[in-house]
Specification:
Layout: H1 7-19, H2 25-31, H3 35-38, E1 40-44, E2 51-55, H4 63-75, H5 78-87, H6 121-136, E3 150-154, H7 161-169, E4 179-183, H8 188-196, E5 203-208, H9 215-232, H10 238-241, E6 242-246, H11 249-255, E7 262-264, H12 281-287, H13 289-308, H14 315-329, E8 334-339, H15 347-359, E9 377-379, H16 391-396, E10 403-408, H17 418-435, H18 439-446, H19 453-458, E11 467-472, H20 477-498, H21 509-522, H22 533-545
Parallel strand pairs: 3-4, 3-5, 5-6, 6-7, 8-9, 8-10, 10-11
Antiparallel strand pairs: 1-2, 2-11
Helix pairs in contact: 1-4, 4-14, 6-12, 7-12, 7-15, 12-13, 13-20, 14-20, 15-20
Bound molecules: 6-O-phosphono-beta-D-glucopyranose.
Length: about 550
């Protein structure tokens, strides 16, 4: 059912109209000294040390609004849909598939999940364990008997972003005597620069592709195999230097990779939800299998929290409904993710795909065109860098940008006062965004210059900008797993309320198909009559300038 068909949607619209001019964070806090205690909640892992504390008190919500948002969750049957996802029903309706990334990390076995392939998950994990150990303890040797010192993950989208983000976020745990490289872009520069840093005798290529048909990945893998064979000569050596992570056995073996060097996963693992699967092999090699298992465990702990916690204290639900409040009622177009942890500098990039490919849809599951906003534009970067780049617009621009601030209590690198200085910023920004600075205060600070009205106005901060603050003890593998799963389920809840299929990605197809038809034209083959005059003009410009 479209989101607007729920009674609570209308209620929320009314609440928005009646509160939008009067609801201020300043008043909300002034009225209720217990607001922080009431509007914050902590998750602690059952099986791991994962922990996430969420302070959502700096949001433009009162009790009535929160209650209406919770009613929306109930009316949209989010809990039923969640249970259907967990139990393996084919909720990816357009592709007729189950959505079972939770089965990849069901480390306790508490989730009862039925689908072809689920029973094989432990077997693949065991394979990953043995293989990653063999690379790390150097018992796996290259064709000249040397241990592996370069690992190149070749993949794109979900077969790249997860491994890149996690190996960065958990760099503290990464084995430093192996260099990890990630090649995604079809631009030859990407592979060329990586190959310059590698030696064919000690390089392992991990070809990561769910479909094993993705143009970028297959082209980069072919280029790498050619480069490797220039030195190794004999094709039989490929077995020691190329492995594949895929659902497509036929295409993998046709490429020349031995089936026993293939790590399987299944069509019920969406690309952007696949770092928990064989796609995580580079992560397991980098941080060690035990840590990879902790990553899975932390995510599993959030899966259990999402399943078993009442919606009022359910972290993914809270983050989802707050997002909907701004996205659909306040008209916010974007959402910023701002981790105050340098290791997490790729977290927002990762969730650009995670969120935008999941919820960037305008057709409901029933085939109707939505008459409301769906997925926000996700962006962000690690603090404090963002402060010196784009925070100006968040503070004083004309757009409302809800933000998530994320920081760990403990750093992996306690040097001097760095961490407390970092955290003072992570705390100062949401405070400034929420409460701003009024004209009176500015005038007081300006003293004699207060007569300059323009100057006064330009120094006023309107405040009332909503933020969440997410605090973890430390970015350990388990806590990172929990954070990722938290956002995954937030995306799920929003998609469920918007009544869209968060698990297909039809919107990326058209450009791919067109690129295939344009490629021969860039070789001067065929005519350009089927293209617009603009694109045809550009093709001809290219052809007349190409050397
Ligand atoms: O893993 P594959 O099959 O090579 O796909 C890579 C990516 O391909 C993109 O086209 C999809 O939009 C992504 O969802 C996917 O992650």
């Amino acid at each position: 059912m479209p989101a607007t068909a729920h009674a609570s949607w209308n209620k929320l619209q009314q609440l928005y109209e009646s509160n939008k001019d009067s609801l201020t964070l300043e008043q909300l806090f002034a009225k209720d000294p217990q607001r922080f205690e009431k509007l914050s909640t902590e998750f602690k892992g059952k099986y791991t040390d994962a922990n996430v504390f969420l302070d959502y008190s700096k949001n433009l919500v009162n009790e009535d609004i929160l209650n209406a948002l919770f009613s929306l969750v109930k009316e949209a049957n989010v809990e039923k849909l969640r249970d259907e996802m967990y139990s393996g029903e084919h909720i990816n309706t357009s592709e007729g598939r189950a959505v079972l990334h939770t089965a990849l990390r069901n480390v306790s076995g508490e989730l009862n999940q039925q689908e072809e392939g689920v029973a094989d998950v432990p077997k693949v994990l065991q394979h990953m364990k043995e293989f990653s150990n063999a690379i790390r303890d150097e018992s796996w040797k290259g064709y000249t008997g040397k241990p592996i010192k370069n690992v190149v993950n070749i993949g794109i989208g979900g077969s790249d972003l997860g491994p890149v983000m996690v190996t960065e976020a958990l760099k503290h745990y990464v084995k430093r005597d192996i260099a990890f490289h990630f090649v995604s872009n079809i631009d030859g520069t990407h592979i060329a620069e990586v190959l310059k840093a590698c030696d064919p005798e000690n390089t392992l290529f991990i070809v990561a592709s769910k479909t094993f048909t993705t143009q970028e990945t297959i082209t980069n893998a072919t280029t790498s195999r050619d480069w490797f064979l220039e030195s190794a000569k004999d094709k039989k050596h490929v077995a020691k230097h190329f492995v594949a992570l895929s659902t497509n056995t036929k295409a993998v073996t046709e490429f020349g990779i031995d089936e026993k060097n293939m790590f399987q996963f299944w069509d019920w693992v969406g690309g952007r939800y696949s770092l928990w699967s064989a796609i995580g092999l580079s992560i397991a090699i980098a941080i060690g299998y035990e840590n990879f298992h902790q990553l899975l465990g932390g995510a599993h702990d959030i899966d259990l929290h999402f399943k078993n916690t009442p919606i009022e204290q359910n972290l993914p639900v809270l983050m989802a409904v707050l997002g909907i409040w701004y996205n659909d009622f306040y008209g916010a177009q974007t959402h910023a993710i701002l981790p105050y942890d340098q290791y997490m500098h790729k977290f927002a990039d990762y969730f650009q795909q995670g969120d935008m490919e999941s919820n960037g849809k305008y057709i409901t599951k029933g085939g109707q065109h939505v008459d409301y906003q769906t997925g926000p534009i996700i962006w962000g970067q690690a603090g404090t860098n963002g402060q010196h780049a784009f925070y100006q617009l968040i503070h004083q621009g004309t757009k409302l940008i809800p933000c998530d601030f994320i920081f760990p209590v403990e750093t992996h690198n306690p040097i001097g006062d760095h961490h407390r200085i970092l955290l003072s910023n992570a705390l100062a920004q949401p405070e400034a965004l929420a409460f701003g600075k009024d004209e009176e205060q500015v005038k007081k600070e300006l003293g004699a210059q207060a007569s300059n009205e323009t100057l006064v106005k330009s120094k006023v901060f309107p405040g009332n900008k909503p933020t969440n603050t997410i605090v973890c003890q430390k970015i350990t593998p388990a806590t990172l797993g929990a954070l990722i799963a938290l956002y995954e389920h937030k995306i799920f809840v929003q998609g469920a309320i918007w009544d869209i299929n968060s698990f297909d990605q039809m919107g990326v197809e058209l450009g791919k198909v067109l690129a295939k038809s344009i490629l021969p034209k860039l070789h001067g083959e065929g005519d350009t009559k089927d293209l617009s005059s603009s694109t045809a003009g550009l093709v001809n410009y290219f052809l007349s300038h190409a050397k």
